[in-house]
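Justification of computing resources. Each target in the renewal requires a structure prediction run like the one illustrated here; the chain below, 140 residues long, is used simply to show the kind of job we budget for.
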Amino acid sequence: MTVVERVKSGSKYEDMFKFSRLVKVDNWIYSSNTAGRNYQTREMSPDTVKQAHQALDNLSGALAGVGAKLSDTVRFHIAVRSPEDLEPVLAVIAERVEANDPAHTISIGPMPHEEMKLEIAVIAYIRDPATPDIVTKVTV
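Resulting structure tokens:
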């Protein structure tokens, strides 16, 4: 039987536009784009690094709701407003994902709201702890 879990952040837009912060299907987890807005205060820092940390805090909280963490991430989709924002955001992600080395997809362009400098979405996989990791690194 397939188990589907949906995590909500409490945003009115999730109900209005019928989406979840993330959806877990068996061991796979798919998040929506997540901005660096503090869910409690609704504030968004004008600083790119602070927005990146807040977005990852938001994603970490949602992942924790289904028993996962950022180190379970296998793919990041990173969208930034301008090229200058990219390297600081990538540095924050590198700091927070541990030694995971997930795949990245990067977009640069306009954001839905003026104060937003970035949005981050993830795909994560919760592995069976009884199964050892097989890590292969291939250079192409």
